[in-house]
Design a protein that fits this description.
Layout (H helix, E strand, L loop, with lengths): L9 H10 L2 H12 L2 E2 H8 L3 H13 L3 E6 L2 E6 L2 H10 L1
Antiparallel strand pairs: 1-3, 2-3
């Protein structure tokens, strides 16, 4: 086996770091199957709304998820292909 010292894994490492938290992993896994809003996520996970919002903000900031506004609600979906692939492998 050869090691490629020219390959940069910075983006992959960052995605793995963000998904390394169990709550964020659950959120991304859920969003891979269905687009939904914050209320639905925190109700399903049984977590406080503020906690879920913090995790969603980080996932959005890192480009893993995207939110689309629908009136007063924001519906989230996974947009990063590597995150989707990792969830497929894990699930």
């Amino acid at each position: 086996m050869e090691f490629d010292k020219t390959k940069n894994f910075d983006q992959e490492a960052e995605i793995l770091k963000v998904l390394g938290h169990p709550v964020r992993l659950k959120i991304v896994a859920g969003l891979c199957t269905k687009e939904c809003n914050v209320k639905h996520i925190w109700e399903c996970l049984g977590l406080p709304q503020a906690t879920v919002s913090q995790h969603l903000a980080l996932l959005k900031n890192k480009g893993i998820i995207e939110g689309k506004r629908d009136g007063v609600e924001v519906h989230y979906t996974v947009v990063h292909p590597l995150a989707k692939k990792l969830i497929e492998i894990l699930c």
